[in-house]
């Protein structure tokens, strides 16, 4: 099995609860993360453990879908979600590969703000790979940092 991880952290001028409420609502993701184009299923907020939703991912010329299931939901502390199999599937659910992708957001109060830590872990069976544009979108630290900075910007905008 092959495993890759990518992580990043950013200090936000927001409480852990504000940050959690914003990042745990996938309907916010298209304005935050490069590649996240839409949430194609209805979601009830707050999401809880076991809830699922489907994200439309557009990277380069690829249009893919990721169906995520929430595996940890502790308001103000940790939000984690996972995709099992069908990684890199197209919009019709075809062409995906076996594997597990887990994304975890950990929030730590720091000096009146929040340290926002994001970790992506992808486990793939030996010899299996995901499309390179999807790998770049998910695992490039610059994209993670861009996402985290956008979270801070959007929380400040909502406050104003």
Task: Describe the structure concisely.
This protein has 160 residues and is α+β, with helices and mostly antiparallel strands.
Q: CATH homologous superfamily? A: START domain
Number of helices, counting only DSSP H or I runs of 4 residues or more? 3
Please report the distance between the alpha carbons of the first and last residues. 47 Å
Tell me the CATH topology: Alpha-D-Glucose-1,6-Bisphosphate, Chain A, domain 4
- Measured on Cα atoms, how large is the radius of gyration? 15 Å
Low-confidence stretches: none
β-strand percent reads 35-45%
Shape: globular
Label the CATH architecture: 2-Layer Sandwich
Largest sheet report: 8 strands, antiparallel
CATH class value: Alpha Beta
| SSE order | EHEEEEEEEHH
Portion of residues in helices?
10-25%
Rounded mean pLDDT is 90
Kindly state the number of beta strands. 8
Structural write-up:
By secondary structure, this protein is α+β, with helices and mostly antiparallel strands. Helix content is 22%, strand content 42%. The chain has three helices and eight strands. Strands 1, 2, 3, 4, 5, 6, 7 and 8 form an eight-stranded antiparallel beta sheet that branches. It starts with a strand and ends with a helix.
